[in-house]
Write a structure and sequence with these properties.
Number of strands: 0
Protein name: Photosystem I assembly protein Ycf3
Function: Seems to be required for the assembly of the photosystem I complex.
Radius of gyration: 19 Å
Pfam families: TPR_1
Keywords: Membrane, Photosynthesis, Plastid, Repeat, Thylakoid, TPR repeat
Strand content: under 5%
Low-confidence stretches: none
Shape: elongated
Main location: membrane
Order of helices and strands: HHHHHHHH
Helix content: over 70%
Length: about 170
């Protein structure tokens, strides 16, 4: 049974009910409805820390969903799970795929940027004085893209860019 149909005695099921209204009112195919159900179930499982269940739902949603925009959000959420699991390289692959389908996804740029300063710091700690600059440059580039798409978001990134002297361009 889909997670969204379980009776888990939640106090407030309003978000689920509201999310179901467009699926009932707007003409959609059965496949689109199924994809949406798997996506919502994936988000629900992810919010509860049930990452394996969330991934199963997201992969099924990807199998069913054909709209590139909707697929971008599924891919983004898969990337979030890999980030949460410390699998940053794998997460980056999903963020890149999400951006291929939806280049106006500032949160994907932000999450990609977040991984690079840590890599730069690790390189410094390991005595590598050449590589860190490239990692910091990548972080700056991705944060600038995120900020250009959502100027009032990512204040910490804007501060990092200012402190690091990378706010130019």
């Amino acid at each position: 049974m889909p997670r969204s149909q379980r009776n888990d005695n939640s106090i407030d099921k309003t978000p689920t009910i509201v999310a179901d209204i467009p699926l009932r009112v707007i003409p959609t195919t059965r496949r689109e409805k199924e994809a949406s159900t798997h996506y919502r179930d994936g988000m629900s499982a992810q919010s509860e820390g049930e990452y394996a269940e969330a991934l199963q739902n997201y992969y099924e949603a990807m199998r069913l969903e054909i709209d590139p925009y909707d697929r971008s959000y599924i891919l983004y959420n898969i990337g979030l799970i890999h980030t949460s699991n410390g699998e940053h390289t794998r997460a980056l692959e999903y963020y890149f795929q999400a951006l291929e389908r939806n280049p106006s996804l500032p949160q994907a740029f932000n999450n990609m940027a977040v991984t690079y300063p840590d890599r730069g710091e690790q390189a410094i700690q390991q005595g590598d004085l050449e590589t860190p600059e490239a990692w910091f440059d990548k972080a700056a580039d991705y944060w600038k893209q995120a900020i250009s798409l959502a100027p009032s978001n990512y204040i910490e990134a804007q501060n990092w860019l200012k402190i690091a002297g990378r706010l130019k361009d």
